[in-house]
Write a structure and sequence with these properties.
Family: Belongs to the class-III pyridoxal-phosphate-dependent aminotransferase family. ArgD subfamily.
Enzyme class: transferase
EC number: 2.6.1.11
Bound molecules: pyridoxal-5'-phosphate
CATH topology of the largest domain: Aspartate Aminotransferase, domain 2
Mean pLDDT: 95
Oligomer: single chain
CATH superfamily of the largest domain: Type I PLP-dependent aspartate aminotransferase-like (Major domain)
CATH architecture of the largest domain: 3-Layer(aba) Sandwich
Shape: globular
Largest sheet: 7 strands, mixed
GO molecular function, one term: transaminase activity
Strand content: 15-25%
Helix content: 25-40%
Number of domains: 2
Low-confidence stretches: none
Number of helices: 16
Structural class: alpha/beta
CATH class of the largest domain: Alpha Beta
Subunit structure: Homodimer.
């Protein structure tokens, strides 16, 4: 073998399959990996399409896709080829230079977002970083004395909202358990009750502005993901758009979880029942964008939003690197070529219908859109259901004590959806005595 192709000591890449048992890997994990996630449910070694295999050789239907990430499933040949080809051509340059992949990705994102002239993209490595960029844009949207208003110092977000764990993104994230250990967080953020237009009216009212300052931005998820797949009520975003426009505030849509085809359109806000036809100021994306390769973006709509961050006011070493950009272009290309936006709607509807039709008394309803769904349970036994699913060869997520989240690859077939529905038709959890 050519020396250059010899595996390096200690790691043989994909060849790790069968090297050790799941129990042995888990033990090593507990001694080497920081305990922020708790012990791994399984150690996974390989994937193909909608399936993954664990270190003990068991196969699972992946109905979570790395939490709404693996849009094309695992080891998709087009994605693998695009990443390999880019790595073999030009893997990384500094942001002192541009690359064709980076430029083409920014153009493509503007096109699928139907962003108006003057719009621009900031490329990142994660959803958190995309949100952080949006937060910095909000801080630059202070307003000037000539606006005649109070300076825009407040940033509004919603209860239940999740936007990431860096200090800025955490300030926007509502959950007290995530926030409190790290206070003080960047100030000026207010959390409003979810989907409550009266609360929104109050936050923008002259009295609130006089007492607490003007609003620089409202940051919302069109469908709250981590809060248990909660779509905003119809009409909310249109109302929010009217108020933000009037106040000169940015309407920031966090589509990190809902974007890139997950709900059956490129972005959730593009569906009239969700977006009500709004044009946002900023959309954040990540997760599905790279099909599993880390990449994200903050898309600024129109010249005003696109010029809030001037030269030197933001940066990143890896963001927009050619490999991540090639991965994203390949992912977007496959979604378009294979008509996945349509099949997401069809497969999502099928999955929802079949689960609901089975009439399991443990299942109250299924909510969500496309392939971002939550199975609402009639009892708070989501953890037990998720464990039963794993034992039955399915990966799902107990997103709330009484709700299971499903966010499978966008390539999920009808037969695979039926396999998933069969599990929900028959799963039982004994009542506590
Ligand atoms: C809506 C939303 N925003 C931001 C984030 C943070 O993204 P990341 O984990 O890629 O940093 C997430 C992650 O779950 C998310 O769901």
């Amino acid at each position: 073998m050519n020396d250059a192709l010899e595996p390096v000591s200690g790691w043989t890449g994909g060849g790790a399959v069968g090297e050790a048992s799941g129990a042995a890997w888990t033990d090593r994990y507990s001694h080497a990996v920081m305990d922020t996630f708790g012990p791994p449910q399984r150690v996974l070694v390989r994937g193909e399409g909608a399936y993954v295999w664990d270190a003990d050789g068991r196969r699972y239907l992946d109905l979570l896709a790395g939490i709404a990430v693996n849009a094309l499933g695992h080891a998709h040949p087009t994605l693998t080829a695009a990443i390999s080809a880019q790595l073999g051509t030009l893997g990384h340059v500094s942001n002192f230079f541009g690359t064709p992949a980076q430029i083409a990705l920014a153009e493509r994102l503007l096109a699928i977002a139907s962003a108006p002239d003057g719009s621009r993209v900031f490329l990142t490595n994660s959803g958190t970083e995309a949100v952080e960029a949006a937060f910095k844009m909000a801080r630059r949207n202070r307003g000037t004395e000539t606006d005649g208003d109070a300076p825009r110092t407040r940033v509004l977000a919603l209860e239940g909202g999740f936007h990431g764990r860096s200090m800025g993104a955490l300030a926007l994230t509502a959950k007290a358990a995530y926030r409190e250990p790290f206070e003080p967080l960047p100030g000026g953020v207010e959390h409003l009750p979810f989907g409550d237009t009266a609360a929104l009216d109050e936050a923008f009212s002259p009295a609130a502005v006089a007492a607490r300052g003007g609003v620089a931005a409202l940051v919302v998820e069109p469908v709250q993901g981590e809060a248990g797949v909660r779509p905003l009520p119809e009409g909310y975003l249109a109302h929010a758009r009217r108020l933000t426009s009037r106040a000169g505030a940015l309407l920031v849509l966090d589509e990190v979880q809902t974007g890139i085809g997950r709900t059956g359109s490129w972005f959730a806000f593009q569906q009239p029942e969700i977006g009500g036809g709004v044009v946002p100021d900023v959309v954040t994306v990540a997760k599905g964008l790279g099909g599993g390769f880390p990449v994200g973006a903050a898309i600024a709509f129109g010249e005003r939003a696109a010029t809030l961050l001037g030269r030197g006011q933001h940066g990143t070493t890896f963001g927009g690197n050619p490999i991540a950009s090639a991965a994203a272009l390949a992912t977007l290309g496959v979604i378009e070529r294979d008509g996945l936006l349509g099949s997401v709607r069809e497969t999502g509807d099928l999955l929802r219908r079949e689960i609901e039709a089975a009439g399991n008394p443990l299942v109250a309803a299924v909510r969500g859109r496309g392939l971002l769904l939550a199975v609402q349970l009639t009892r708070p036994v989501a953890a037990q259901v998720a464990t039963a699913a794993l034992d039955a060869g399915l990966i799902v997520n107990a997103v709330a004590p009484d709700a299971i989240r499903l966010a499978p690859p966008l390539i999920l077939t009808a037969d695979q959806a039926r396999d998933a529905a069969r599990f929900f038709a028959s799963v039982t959890v004994p009542e506590e005595p």
